[in-house]
Amino acid sequence: QVHLVESGGGLVQPGGSLRLSCAVSRTIFSVNAMGWYRRAPGKERELVARITTSSVTVYEDSVKGRFTISRDNSKNTVYLQMNRLEPEDTAVYYCNTANIVGDLVTPWGQGTQVTVSS
């Protein structure tokens, strides 16, 4: 069963913007904090932004002030607005739950590739 479907990635120049979307199964979305993760080439997957069910947000330092995570409870969708993109943001981006405790959803979605290059 597919629970997480990411979309919206692409190739963008440094300084550009992209908006990622993640459609989440309703039963998962409604009761979990959600997060955007990324895996850059040769690196471990990391959590870059988190949003609770009450829309409290937390960001990893390198994206603070540039990325905005949001959720639409009517669409069971979580978004990541990415502005002022840098080459270091190049990665495959995934969404998943992001609770303080608890398991991640498996399997992960396919992710969406973001490439920042001139």
Can you give a write-up of this model?
The strands form two sheets. Strands 2-10-9-4-5-6 form a six-stranded mixed beta sheet, with no helix packed on it. A four-stranded antiparallel beta sheet has the order 1-3-8-7. It is mainly β and 118 residues long. The chain has one helix at residues 26-29; strands at residues 4-7, 10-12, 18-24, 34-39, 46-51, 57-59, 67-72, 77-82, 91-97, 112-116. It is built from one helix and ten strands.
Termini Cα gap: 38 Å
Helix percentage:
under 10%
**Rg, Å, rounded:** 13 Å
Which parts are unreliable, with pLDDT below 50 for 5 consecutive residues or more? none
**Biggest sheet architecture:** 6 strands, mixed
Give the class from helix and strand content and strand pairing: mainly beta
Mass-distribution shape: globular
Mean model confidence by pLDDT: 96
Query: What are the secondary-structure elements, in order, as H or E?
Result: EEEHEEEEEEE
What share of the residues does DSSP label as strand, in percent? 35-45%
Order of neighbouring strands in the sheet with most strands: 2-10-9-4-5-6
**What's the helix count?**
1
| Number of beta-strand segments | 10
